[in-house]
Amino acid sequence: MYKKFTDEELVELLKSGKDKAFDELYFRYRDILVRFVYLRMKSVAISEEIVQEVFTSIWERRKTIVIQKSFAAYIYTSVRYMTLDYFKSHSVTDQYIQEVLDKNTISFSSHNVTEDFIYYEELQKAVDKATMLLPKKSKEVFILSRIKHYSNKEIADELNVSIETVKYHITYSLKFMRTYLGEFN
After folding, report:
1. What pTM was computed for the model?
2. CA nearest 39: which of 93, 79, 96?
3. How far is it, in rounded angstroms, from Cα 96 to Cα 1?
4. Closest C-alpha to 73, from 44, 103, 33
5. Tell me: the pLDDT tens digits for 94-122?
6. Is 92:99 a contact under the CB 8 Å cutoff?
7. Using an 8 Å Cβ cutoff, are 150 and 125 in contact?
8. How far apart are CA 116 and CA 105, in angstroms?
9. Largest Cα–Cα distance of the chain, in whole Å?
10. Residue 161, class by beta-carbon neighbours within 10 Å (0-12 exposed, 13-18 middle, 19+ buried)?
11. Phi-psi region of 162 (alpha: psi -120 to 50; beta: other; left: phi over 0)
């Protein structure tokens, strides 16, 4: 129904309370934005998370959003800034979290191996504790995704949920982990 509308018309419809206008914008831009972010991040999950956060922000501000130029320019700029923010705030923590989750690959970065080992052990305990604190379904999805390396489709099939539900739980789990593991930044 909304496919024939321009982006700007969809934004106006969204402001007036038409939720389906948001859906159309989301489906119109989601995949191309994920690919755009992936070129920089080299991670589908992180790329999807960044795009999801931008769209969540748009949804939360839907009644008051002001777009100066085109929606396309607005959304690309938002995604670009969110990607830069992600780099700034997660580069060190994500490296260590990945090392903890992938027990076969322990690489220490500095010359002080003892210090790195202690840091690694502390982070391992913190990741384990944070995982246990996740809600049941988010914990299941997180373990299947990040520890057992299942694809989103495999997780959806295994847990009998939609892929969008899997993506939601991954996004929630990663945000929770970053908040909980903030001291490791």
Report:
1. 0.50
2. 79
3. 46
4. 33
5. 555 665 565 544 444 444 556 555 666 67
6. no
7. no
8. 14
9. 62
10. middle
11. beta
